[in-house]
Structure formats: structure tokens, C-alpha cells
Write a structure and sequence with these properties.
Largest sheet: 8 strands, antiparallel, barrel
Number of helices: 1
CATH superfamily: Calycin beta-barrel core domain
Structural class: alpha+beta
CATH class: Mainly Beta
Number of domains: 1
Order of helices and strands: HEEEEEEEE
Distance between the termini: 48 Å
Number of strands: 8
Helix content: 10-25%
């Protein structure tokens, strides 16, 4: 019985360490291109800061920087919003793929559904 309990506890600890390592990997600078509704390609850059399951940081495109609001992490899923200087709230949803060091990001820009793949900036 003690051996089974120890093995189970060890496996749970390993899982938690792996999960923490995956979340910690989101910290840093990420960038990727996206096509605007007008067809123009725009480069988006985000600097993510992780604290537990909370995501904060900044986003930047065309020289405009915005803060990340309401950022959350649930496993490899991330959600957050940014508010433009014009007051537009832009929801983002994404999935982190640690094995590819990439984030698949969906953006709802004024009803237009945009998609980008972010890569870590090294």
C-alpha cells in the first residue's frame, strides 16, 4: 500500500512540475503576422508575463502599444483582451504548443475573425 501511495504521489509531482514548466515557457516576447480585414499584413508582438494562471503584459503593432487585460491561462489555453486607444476591446484566444514553441492565436477584431501563429522572439 505504501509503495502504491508513494508512486502515485511521485507521478502527481512530476505532472505538476511539467505543467508549471509549460506555463513558464509562455513568459517572454512572441511575434507573428496577421492579415487585417483590409488585406494588409501587420506584425503583432506580445510580451507575456505569467503569474500562476494570470497572464499580463503588452501587445504592439504598427508602433502602438497596449496593455493585456483579463489574461488567463487554463492548461495550454490562453485568453486575454486588449483595448485600443480608440476604446475598442479586442478579445484574443489562443493555444500554446510547447513542442513547437508556438501559439495559435484567434483575434476578434470588430467582428472580423483573424488568425495568426506567434513564434517566440529570441
Amino acid at each position: 500500500m505504501t509503495k502504491k501511495l508513494f508512486t502515485t504521489a511521485a507521478l502527481v509531482c512530476c505532472f505538476m512540475i511539467c505543467l508549471a514548466a509549460a506555463v513558464a515557457d509562455l513568459n517572454g516576447k512572441w511575434s507573428g503576422p496577421v492579415k487585417s480585414p483590409e488585406g494588409e499584413e501587420v506584425v503583432l508582438t506580445y510580451v507575456f508575463k505569467i503569474d500562476g494562471n494570470k497572464l499580463t503584459g503588452t501587445g504592439e503593432s504598427n508602433g502602438n502599444t497596449v496593455n493585456i487585460d483579463d489574461g488567463k491561462i487554463d492548461g495550454n489555453d490562453i485568453t486575454f483582451k486588449v483595448t485600443t486607444s480608440e476604446g475598442d476591446v479586442i478579445p484574443h484566444t489562443g493555444k500554446f504548443y510547447p513542442e513547437a514553441d508556438s501559439i495559435s492565436m484567434n483575434i476578434d477584431y470588430k467582428g472580423a475573425k483573424l488568425h495568426t501563429t506567434l513564434k517566440r522572439v529570441k
